[in-house]
């Protein structure tokens, strides 16, 4: 059997999902190289900071929609079959406010809060919330069954599954994408390198993608559990502040979010923003705390800041030859890296197959 030597650069949700899918084919010998691995918390590593849930945001008819559409069945199957993966089903409530102009966070949520969204036939139990049950400042609202992922548990599960399939994990901090081709665990040159370096694709030699920029997300993780997940189209506090709540599976705590601060690289939690996040969460979900307790009733585990790896024009999933090395890119997933993970990784795997076929044809 011919073997394919493949290096995946990056161990966030994009790299790990791609490695997990590639490792399912015994012909693929997969090495995963990364500066940061599951267990690390670092501002350069977005994946551990995510909520993370499935609240689709892709424009109808776009690649983004196709990737999110393709990801739901995969996440659902993992949730049902592998409780140890750290994902559970949760009810989600989505609220769209009349007064929100389509800017910043409201624009980010436009397709999620749309009253007749494409995803209504994808997620189970979708139904509009009748208008007589909504406050006067709400345009529309809907509920459906979604999932909430516990990223530290889920990322470690992806590592475990890939290792079980023969993948080898190594730490590395590369200056140039082509260096990855010489770091395959067999000592042989890689046939193809998958670039899953997220926001760092802006700085990685051979890639230097100037279209990459961060959207800073600040969260408060608490022990309180309000039940269902919630998201609101916008807040009154600032155009780049958000309001969402989700409780992670298997004891991961409840994420109170958030913010969507474009081009803000600050890794330090802003405590006045944290106070606004907590106050807004209690306003929409008063059962987070005992009556009258207010913010003091929240039992804080930690404050967190992550940088969503945004890219002008959307994620880059394409193949390229760089100094003779075949590279498949899979980065730039903004605030939807988990909910589009399987769709994007599937596309990247198809491109890897194309590269391998081109190579084998060239050898004939
Ligand atoms: P990263 O997780 O950043 O991983 C990049 C990897 O590349 C790391 O392993 C890093 O060490 C490695 N790397 C980079 N450069 C080098 C180098 N030179 N050499 C070696 N290794 C390198 N998404 C959802 O779908 N649902 C949500 O609910 C959600 N909520 C979010 C909330 C917050 C607050 C934030 C910040 C994000 C959220 N996201 C959510 C978005 C999601 O977290 C990201 O889209 C996703 O984590 C990006 O993953 P990635 O693997 O592409 O990048």
From TrEMBL:
Entry cofactors: FAD
Residues the entry annotates as binding D-dopa: 335
Q: Name one GO cellular component term.
A: peroxisomal matrix
Enumerate the UniProt keywords alphabetically. Answer: FAD, Flavoprotein, Oxidoreductase, Peroxisome
Compartments it resides in: Peroxisome matrix
| A GO term for molecular function | D-amino-acid oxidase activity
- Specify which residues bind FAD according to the UniProt entry for this protein: 197
According to UniProt, the name of this protein is D-amino-acid oxidase
Q: Which organism is it from?
A: Penicillium antarcticum
